[in-house]
Write a structure and sequence with these properties.
Layout lengths: L11 H15 L4 E2 H8 L3 H13 L3 E4 L5 E4 L1 H12 L4 H15 L2 E8 L2 E8 L14 E3 L4 H8 L3 H13 L5 H17 L2 E4 L6 E9 L5 E10 L5 H22 L1
Antiparallel strand pairs: 1-3, 2-3, 4-5, 4-9, 5-6, 7-8, 8-9
Helix pairs in contact: 1-3, 2-3, 5-9, 6-8
Amino acid sequence: MGPLLQDRPTAPAVDHSIAILQLLVNASYPLTQSEISEQTGIPPASCYRILGSLLETQMVSLDPGRKRAYCIGSKIFQMASAIYSRQSILPFFHPIAEILKNEIHQTVLLSLPVGNKVVVLGCLKSYLGNGYPVHIGQTLPMHRAAAGKAILSLRADAYLDNYLDAEQRLALLDEADVQALRAQLERARRLGYATTRGEIDSATCCLAAPVADLRGDPVAAVSICVDAESLSDAQIRAYSGPLIQAARQLTARIG
């Protein structure tokens, strides 16, 4: 990877607000202002002002169980619920994913593209498979995720060029990465599915097939998580057939 860009525009108040919200999302218990300031590195005075604004807009709330401690507010849940409820693909995904899960006994995911990333929107975990550390809302860069590669494999050349240029400008990919990714996407386009190793952790392999709309544009990807250590090329081919079929069924249903 190249060095981080030095001229990237910044807005400290916005950056600090995001850092606070991210900290509270990941925290296992409500945090006080001093704890938030210490863990984020935000100066106490700035932290106080930002928390006041977030509290006023209901992005954070005071937790009644701990004095002057903050947790994620109701507005975050309202926004997330509104976005989640508008995803009309979900009702079609679950029955198809249930059949796929029962056939291959692996965890099945539905991911959607959001900007230059993919977000897990649906997750059916197989109790016969390993407990992979994946959850709804999990977000990864397009080029790191099997779902992202599956989606990119159906994109037009102009879109792909713009995406890769933007990732290089952000120093997320270098020229060698770009060439390797182009080869992977060409292979995914030819086979109908993409693969990654180490996407979630070093022991996990993911396979994904794209879901398209009536125009043939990719709108999502169906993926599965498999134990990388015991996965052979023959098993990948065996899993890819039902996976591609599930993605095609979902494509037909949303069309």
